[in-house]
Amino acid sequence: MEVTGKIVKVSGPLIIAEGMAGAKMYDVVGVSEEQLIGEIIEIRDDKAWIQVYEDTGGLGPGEPVVSTGHPLSVELGPGLIGAIYDGIQRPLDAIFERAGDRISRGVTAPALDREKKWHFVPTIEVGAQVETGDELGTVQETEVIVHKVLVPPGLRGTVSQIAEGDYTVEETVATLQSEAGTADVTMLQKWPVRQGRPYKEKLTPSEPLVSGQRVIDTFFPVAKGGTATIPGPFGSGKCVSAGTPVMLADGTLTTMGELYEEGQKCGKVTRMGAEETVELERPLEVIALTEDGLAPQKVNLLYQGKSDSLLRLRTRTGKVLEVTPVHKLFQLTGRAEINERQARELKVGDYLVSPRKLPKAEGDQNLDLDLPGDVRFVDQDLRVELSGIARELRACGKLDTVAIGKDTIQSIISKRVMPSVDMGEQIYRAAGMSAPAPREYRGARSGQVVNMPQKLTGDLAELMGLFIAEGYLRDEGTIVFTNSEHVLRQRFLELLDRVFKVRGTIEWQDGKTPNVLVHNRVLVKIFRGLELDGKADSKRLPRQVLQGSDEVLGAFLRGFYLGDGSITKGEIELTTASKELQLGLSYLLTRLGIFHTLAGRERKWRIFVRGLENLRLFLASVKVEGLEHRKLDSIRGYLAEKKTSYTAVDVVPLAPEFVDEVYRQSSVSYTTLYEAGVEIHNYLAGERMSTPTFRKFARAVAGTNENVDRLAALTDEVYCDEIVEIEELAGPHSVYDLTVPQYHNFVGGFGASILHNTVVQHQLAKWSDADLIVYIGCGERGNEMTDVLQEFPELVDPRTGEPIMKRTVLVANTSDMPVAAREASIYTGITIAEYFRDMGYHVALMADSTSRWAEALREMSGRLEEMPGEEGYPAYLGSRLAEFYERTGRVVCLGKEGREATLTAIGAVSPPGGDLSEPVTQATLRIVKVFWGLDANLAYRRHFPAINWLTSYSLYSDQLKDYFAQEVGQDALDRRDEALRILQQEAELDEIVRLVGEDALSFAQRMLLATARSLREDFLHQVAYHEVDTYTPLAKQAKLLELILKFHHLGLEALERGVELSEILSLPVRERIGRAKYIPAENMAEFDAVNKQIEEELSGATEGERKLA
Q1: Which of 301, 681, 918, 925 is deepest in the core (most CB within 10 A)?
Q2: How far is 892 from 902, CA to CA, in rounded Å?
Q3: Concatenated DSSP letters of 1012-1037
Q4: What is the pLDDT of residue 1104?
Q5: 3-state secondary structure of 625
Q6: How far apart are alpha carbons 27 and 38 in whole angstroms?
Q7: Better pLDDT: 899 or 309
Q8: Lowest mean pLDDT among 122-136, 481-495, 909-923, 994-1008
């Protein structure tokens, strides 16, 4: 029944309407003349409280509200697979075609295409008796999903008409006759989202959802039809200020603001309230920290938003980072662990991981300068060619389009004049040709001929360095180089001649420093094109220099050092009046791997290079054959005189107790370390190791501690930078971010730093043996959701080789969209999932994140003026979560076929600050039966999947016991329990080892630690990008675990017989166990061979007296 009322109050997404007597709870209504979509959530007398799923800005009292009499429903039928919907099932692709990037208010579109025809194939014949849930026929919806057309709920009867053919979703595919009359069946169904779809019977889950991830399938399995949750970071708005520099992979140094402005010009802009994203047509590349070090990575999405405050962090090397408080940075702990920490969690004295050496740039070294059109070109061959072209054009009468006088044309033809660049381009264009680049230029009237180099060479780079240091442009026709040293003035003149074939003169002035003068307007214009202009305090490093080779970088550095550098007591200092130039030089030094520090004040910005290793590297970069200078000699002299040096800046901040622990575990003697150049007692007393000393220490104790080994491997590319100051900058501020898929970090900052930019769900989607995936993004930030929408469609289903979207439905609802739509999104998603479950499919639903959904509940509850519960959430939070998760399960579907199907829900929660005691997480944990605890420490030790085996759990183990016994082996769960006990005992023993060292442990306990390490590295650690290791079948998982535990048991027996622990742990078979995870699943016989080798080597181990390590 249609009911019409009018608005009496508007409160954000909530409106109150009167005159709504006769309307029902959860009816959909049309609000205002624009018919905005809303839903009744409370009724009192004739007033209705309505949550509106669109922007309510501008609405006011008196505007109409019309009830449709129907609840909020979704459309179900062919066309769902591969679709991307918003929270109330509006198809985003269709909305984009109608309204553009932003969903305009009042714009809607049918969820399923009404015009597309689907080929329907009946599976029953006329005369068949059918009931609700019986299969009428099928449609091949995608290459991997057959859409089963079922008798809708509430219908039964005899099939009187059905035929194969092509139908739209609204056309009749079958007709049923019953006592109630005739019913036409179409492929389109509608179902209210807040009501679960019916089934015959709910069964106990008895089969695991196999993901191929060992830590999940073996240790913490989720059953098909079960529930699980993953905690993830909350509010991780990882943004930086507009002025933050960013280094692109081609060597370009730009800022986040400039990068975003450029992206807006050629990318697809999406505005979402205060947020905005730009999808780039052509991805750009930045430098990111990967598991193999710093490397170029693609970026295809830029983000702009707002932040109430920023934090400015200054480091001991003089670098500055301006980031949002929740922006994550890489911190090095005293135990050599690289952790991800929010900026607001850091304090003065903490150490950040910063880039020491950036990878080689991929920039273009060709010089492509735009010179004014009146510049003349001198090249004889081009003048001859141009003369011939002009003559042919005149003969054909095609010179009408050329704005050049007849007399001038005749002079060009007769080669009496030197044509201007503009003339040449016009004539070539008239002939339909591209104008070639001349090599020799001259001014419009007179002057020296200037040779134009085609590439940025070392000579040109050195000339640029000298000029940036000591030169300026006096006017439009004069280049000035000022220096008191004869050798540098001669060097400048020599380079001018070598590069441009131009001569200069010396200007002598009484009482003043001599100048080199070059009077040449063309060369001045070339210098401007090379970015060599500007006053002393506004000079900058030319863009193409940073894009150059190491030879070009070193040549520019040589020129600048000879001009504006000095060395005193082994300390190189580069000085400039321009802060921007200081920044560019810092990135240049980082490109070369030269460690340095920054300092200075207005108009005197300085860079220092200290330490023997860095001085050697500096000298190797700037020296050139045939050039001698006192500044180069001073570096050589210092290096020849000094043999050792210590730096308090380039250090590795290991805790003394950790150094002691590693030292004791290694069994390396004091003498060995001393001979290697490590005075270990200094570092046990608290002195920081310099990076060169740490490398020596790491080589001496190699294999003792994985953190030390990993950090040592990275020290050629990164170093540790101490935070010396943290300052809060009140806002609001415009902030920016860019998306680096997989690694989520990039090199940038005022001085090169590593800035963070959240793949368990992707792996589950790819490898889980679910037939169909429904992914719900219920309220993530705009750039995070866009990241999902870009990455998810690119995933390939490894079983079929088809895009995973051919068995996926995406519901995308971002945090800037109306909060009410966020609340509806999970119901929309789970109703679609139930629809495919009814066909007999195993469906996996992933909701990210239910914390955002709960926030929507909290806001609507507050606007309804309900009594708040804990932390402001409504008292019914737990029951609403339970209603959602209770719609999962293993069921017998309606219909005579007795189809069994499952719906599994995996929900992410986002506890603020990782606090698992907050209400949403606790309410979720009371309902779900599997908890996968993600661990940032594991992630930044490169341990993936980063699921913590000590905090995670699964309550499905007993229900799945029979399955594992039948499919894997009778003792499968016993081995799993034993492995978990060993890992738990390792954590307990680790506390003892930290306090008193490993020497205090018995040999059996040390054996347990070795087994635990094998479990972590050889079983739990899994490489998502390795073609074999990315997925492990259950049978292979069982074999892997059997190998590790068998070695453990037989190793303990060997210890009892008196075999030395060191001999057991050095057996060759241990290496084979470590490589076993890379054995292809089809070669399972290899596991038997490894098993046999374990037995042979341990039974044949030599007995002997035990020795204390």
Answers
A1: 301
A2: 9
A3: HHHIIIIII---TTSTTTT---HHHH
A4: 42
A5: coil
A6: 8
A7: 899
A8: 909-923
Cβ neighbours around 380 below 10 Å, total:
9
CA-based radius of gyration for the chain? 36
* Spatial CA neighbour of 744 closest among 243, 319, 236: 236
| Helix H or strand E encompassing 552 | helix 550-564
Residue 483 tokens read as 């220096």
Residues 315-328: tens digit of each pLDDT:
999 999 988 887 77
Give, in order, the Cα–Cα distances in Å from 328 to each of 173, 294, 510, 848.
56, 18, 59, 20
pLDDT over 70 percentage in the chain: 91
Whole-number Å distance between alpha carbons of 845 and 823? 16
Whether residue 62 is predicted with pLDDT greater than 90 in this model: the reply is yes
**Residue 516 phi, psi dihedral angles, 5° rounding:** -95, 125
Q: Determine the Cα–Cα distance for residues 837 and 890; give it in Å rounded to an integer.
A: 9
The answer to whether the CB of 493 falls within 8 A of the CB of 504 is yes
Predicted confidence at residue 759, as pLDDT, reads 42
435: closest CA among 419, 421, 451? 421
Contact 267, 701 (CB under 8 A): no
| Stated pTM of the model | 0.62
For 452-480, give the DSSP string. Answer: --SB--HHHHHHHHHHHHHEEEEETTEEE
Tell me which H or E stretch contains 773: strand 772-780
Q: Please write down the HEC assignment for all residues of 629-668.
A: CHHHHHHHHHHHHCCCCCCCCCEECCCHHHHHHHHHHHCC
Q: Are 895 and 151 in contact (CB under 8 A)?
A: yes
Report helix angle 458-470 to 550-564, nearest 10: 30
Q: For residue range 182-197, what is the model confidence (pLDDT) as tens digits?
A: 999 999 999 999 999 9
Over residues 1004-1008, the mean pLDDT reads: 94
Q: How far apart are CA 438 and CA 453, in angstroms?
A: 10
Give the chain's end-to-end CA distance (angstroms, integer).
Answer: 86
Closest CA relative to residue 446, chosen from 503, 376, 386: 376
Tokens 């368990």 belong to 760
Measured distance CA(739)–CA(312) in Å, rounded: 22
Q: Which of 240, 243, 357, 247 shows the shortest CA–CA distance to 746?
A: 247
Please tell me what DSSP assigns to residue 216. Answer: I
For residue 494, give the H/E element and its range. Answer: helix 486-500
Query: Residue 829 in contact with residue 813, Cβ under 8 Å?
Result: no
